Amino acid sequence: AILKMASPNGGDDFESSLLSFENLDRASPDLWPEQLPGVAEFAASYKNPITNSPPKWMAELESEDIEMLKELGSLTTANLMEKVKGLQNLAYQLGLEESREMTRGKFLNILERPKK
User: Fold this and answer.
1) Structural domain span for residue 79
2) Is residue 47 part of a domain?
3) H-assigned helices in the chain
4) Total number of domains constituting the chain
5) Would you say the pTM of this structure is higher than 0.85?
């Protein structure tokens, strides 16, 4: 890319000092790292629809997992947000229960290591 700017006084030396012969090549991963890891690999696999094999991430899914994905994919935005709120509440309740059980274990001295 050649950068050329007009000089305020019309001097040719000033113009030549502003020239840039730098070549910006996107082939270097060090200069242009992938902003979202995995996107290039996904795009490459998506461009080739000829392959009949499922993607790598689907190979480990069971039928229950696929059904869950279909169910979540069919939800409206409001329903999906409600589902997320429910999961957050469940995680909070589990955290409280775990805290109670850890406190209980502490009082019962079942978490102590045997003394040598």
Assistant:
1) 34-108
2) yes
3) 12-17, 39-47, 56-59, 63-74, 77-107
4) 1
5) no
